[in-house]
From TrEMBL:
Sorted UniProt keywords: NAD, Oxidoreductase, Porphyrin biosynthesis
NCBIfam families: PRK05562.1
Protein name, entry field: precorrin-2 dehydrogenase
Pathway entry: Porphyrin-containing compound metabolism; siroheme biosynthesis; sirohydrochlorin from precorrin-2: step 1/1
Protein source organism: candidate division KSB3 bacterium
Length: 223
C-alpha cells in the first residue's frame, strides 16, 4: 500500500532506533546500588527489590515512597555519594537531581566497569529496565525501539493474555522435557511437540494419543 505524504514525513523524522540485548538476571544473586532518594529512585527500588535483587539506596534524604517500601531486600544508607560505594555492586542506578553528581557517578562507573542506568537520560546509560509481564509459566520483557512506555504497556498486556492462553501447554511440555532426559530421540520429540499442529491438538484435548504414540520407541508416526 502506498504511503501518504504525511506518513512518509513521519517515518523520515523518526529518531535513531535503540539496539537492545536482553539478559535474564538471576535476581537473588544481583546487588543493585541506587544513588538518589526521589521519585525515580523509589520506582527503581521497588522494581529491583520486588524481583528479589538486593538493593541499597544512598541519598542525603529519602522520599516517603522509599521509606514506606516494605521489603527485606532493601536497605537505605543516608549520606552523599562517594566513589567507594560502587564496590561490590553489579548494577548502578543514577537518580540524583544534580547533573554534575550524575556525570561524576557515570564517569566512575565507566572506570570501574559497572553497568549503570541514567534515570534522567536513559540514552546516556548502559542499560534500561524493560516492561515486564508474566503468566504462571512465562515472563515477558518488552521495549519499544523508539521509547514509548504507554505503547509498551498496551502491547505487553495483549502478549500477556497470549502467554496465559499457553500456560497449560508450557507446563505439560516442560514436564515432558524432564521425562525425556536420557532418551536419544529427545530433541526430535520436542521439535514435533513444539509446533502449531501439536498445540492445536493440545488445545482441543486431542493430543494424548498422539503423544503416547510419539513416546513409543518403535513409532515414527508423523503429526
Amino acid at each position: 500500500m502506498k504511503k501518504t505524504e504525511s506518513q512518509v514525513s513521519l517515518l523520515d523524522s523518526r529518531p535513531e532506533q535503540a539496539s537492545y540485548m536482553f539478559l535474564s538476571l538471576l535476581a537473588d544473586k544481583i546487588k543493585v546500588l541506587i544513588i538518589g532518594g526521589g521519585k525515580a529512585a523509589s520506582i527503581k527500588a521497588k522494581s529491583f527489590a520486588g524481583r528479589g535483587c538486593r538493593v541499597t539506596v544512598v541519598s542525603p534524604e529519602f522520599s516517603p515512597e522509599i521509606t514506606l517500601l516494605d521489603t527485606g531486600s532493601l536497605s537505605l544508607q543516608e549520606g552523599r555519594y562517594q566513589r567507594r560505594q560502587l564496590d561490590g555492586y553489579h548494577l548502578v542506578v543514577i537518580a540524583t537531581d544534580n547533573n554534575d553528581v550524575n556525570r561524576q557517578i557515570q564517569k566512575d562507573c565507566e572506570q570501574m566497569a559497572k553497568l549503570y542506568l541514567m534515570c534522567g537520560d536513559p540514552g546516556e546509560g548502559q542499560f534500561v529496565t524493560p516492561l515486564m509481564r508474566e503468566s504462571e509459566e512465562a515472563i515477558l520483557a518488552l521495549n519499544t525501539r523508539q521509547g514509548s512506555p504507554r505503547t509498551s504497556v498496551f502491547i505487553a498486556e495483549k502478549l500477556r493474555k497470549e502467554l496465559e492462553d499457553h500456560d497449560s501447554f508450557i507446563r505439560v511440555v516442560c514436564e515432558l522435557r524432564e521425562q525425556l532426559k536420557g532418551r536419544d530421540d529427545r530433541d526430535e520429540i520436542l521439535k514435533r511437540v513444539n509446533t502449531d499442529e501439536f498445540f492445536e491438538l493440545f488445545r482441543r484435548g486431542q493430543h494424548h494419543d498422539v503423544l503416547r504414540d510419539m513416546l513409543s520407541p518403535d513409532s515414527q508416526r508423523p503429526l
